[in-house]
User: Fold this.
Amino acid sequence: MKKEGLPEQIKVYAYSGYKADERPTAFVVNDRRCSVTRIIDRWYGQDHDYFKVLAEDGTVCLLKRHRAQDLWFLEKVMEKEGMH
Assistant:
């Protein structure tokens, strides 16, 4: 995943439990689907939900959901887990 050009609007597949889009399970970047292996962290703002996730390729990504518009964005791509 490339880091330039962020934030980028993306398609996200999400688990819906007691609320809609409770947590992302996969996302699509550049026509490539990435499964979410683990939710590392999550926090909620006034209008947005943020999820720091571990993708199946080992990349750590920050995803943001704009609740009112029901849009998802790839905010940041970080180093692969375990790499410094």
